[in-house]
Amino acid sequence: MLRQLLVCIAVSLCNIAIHAVVMEAVLRAGRAAGERATVHPSLQLIAVMSATVSVLMAAHLAEVMVWALAYEIVDAAPEGTDLVYFAFVNYATLGYGDITPLQRWYLIGPMTAMNGVLLFGWSTAVIFSVLQKAWLTDRAGEG
């Protein structure tokens, strides 16, 4: 069990680092876009939010790929398993149950799910922050 926890903690920390770098870039870009004056604030809001969500989705995809790579390295799933699909199902907490990890790696699924839930929550907070800054900038321009 200790080996499972150590691997899962290492992968989670890697994903947290990826997410932190992306969050910093998204917040900087959102702040910079919010400071620019525009004649079409609604279009700017749409562009900023579309870019924000697209970048965050790309970050989550990268994090799923890190889990899939970890599954491959530790041989966590039955032979022939689509590891990217398996990682997505765990990370997004779908829990289809059509693929289960090998018995010696039973904790890897729930740990992947825990990591995904935390990072989705973090993304939600950042989306809200960017939206709030963009919306307030939009409203300030109306006055």
Quick summary of this structure?
With 143 residues, this protein is mostly helical.
Descriptive report:
The chain has 143 residues and is mostly helical. It has four helices and no strands. The longest helix is centred in the C-terminal third of the chain and has 35 residues. The relative contact order is 0.18.
Keywords summarizing the entry:
single chain, mainly alpha, 143 residues
Topology:
Blueprint: H1 2-35, H2 41-74, H3 83-91, H4 108-142
Helix pairs in contact: 1-2, 1-4, 2-3, 2-4, 3-4
What is the general shape? Answer: elongated
Low-confidence stretches: none
**Fraction of residues in helix:** over 70%
Please, what is the average pLDDT? 90
Content of β-strand: under 5%
SS-based structural class? mainly alpha
Helix-strand sequence: HHHH
Main sheet: strands, sense, barrel = none
The total count of helices amounts to 4
**Termini separation (Å)?**
60 Å
- The count of DSSP E runs of length 2 or more, i.e. the number of strands, is 0
- CA radius of gyration is 19 Å
Oligomer: single chain
